[in-house]
C-alpha cells in the first residue's frame, strides 16, 4: 500500500499513486518475496524529501526497493521550494548560495530556488567609491552588516542599497570675505555660518571666494588651485579642510607740510617736511594712523585740514579710503 502523496507521485510495478486525479493506483498485490522498485516524482515547486519503509537506491535516491514478505506500507515526503529573486543592483554585487547578481556583465545569477525554511546568507560587495547603505527584506547580521540572512518561508525578493561614499569639506575664513560652493552646501563667511558640507566621493565642486568691501582675495590653503584661481574647481578624493584668505585693501595716506615743520605718523611710514620726503604711505584698509605736527623753532603749528583732521592736536585718520591731509 502506498500512502498517497499530495505533492508528488510514486510509481512502479503497477503502482501509480499521487496527487493527480488519475494517479489512484495506490495498492497492489504481489507474490511472496518479490523485490519492488518504486520511483518518486515531485510536483512543480517541490522536491523529493525521503522514503519511509523503503530502502533508497544509493546512486539514485529518487528510487527505492522493498521486499514484499508481508503486507507493507510505503510513503514518500515532498518538500516545497521557493524562489529567491535579487533586485539587480547597479553599484555593487550580491552573492551567496548560488546567487551572483550585480552591476558587472558577468554577475547575472539573480534568482535561485531553495527548500522551504532554508536559511540563506547573502553578502553585499559595493563597487569602488560606494558603500552598502541598507538591505531590503533581509536581516543584516550583527557585527557583519555586509551580510544578511533570510528564511525561505515563501517566495522572497531581496535588494541592497549602495550609496556613494561621502566626504566632508570644511571651510575657514581668514579675513573679511565669503565662500560659496557649487553644488550648494557651503555658504561661509560674512553673515553666513554654513561652513561644512558632505559630497559624494569623486564629486567636482566649485569654490567661489567673494571679498568684503574693504578686502581682496589673497588665496587658498588646503586645496591645490593653480595661481590661487577663483573660482577654484576641486575633485574630491579625500576629506578637505580649506582656508580662504582675504587681505585688507590698501589705501594711501598723503600729507603735505606747508611752512616750516614736520609731520610724522604712528604707525611709522610718514616723515614729511624740510629735508624729509616720506610724504605718503600705503596702509591696510581701516588702519588708524595718528599724525603729529612738529613746527621748527621759528614756526608755530596753525592746524590741520583734509582727511577729517582739524585743530592743532594730533590727528587720527582712519583709512577707509585714500586720504590727503595738510599741515
UniProtKB/TrEMBL annotation:
It comes from the Bacteria. InterPro entries: Bacterial_rp_domain. Residues 16-78, 106-165, 193-249, 273-327 form the Bacterial repeat domain. This is Bacterial repeat domain-containing protein.
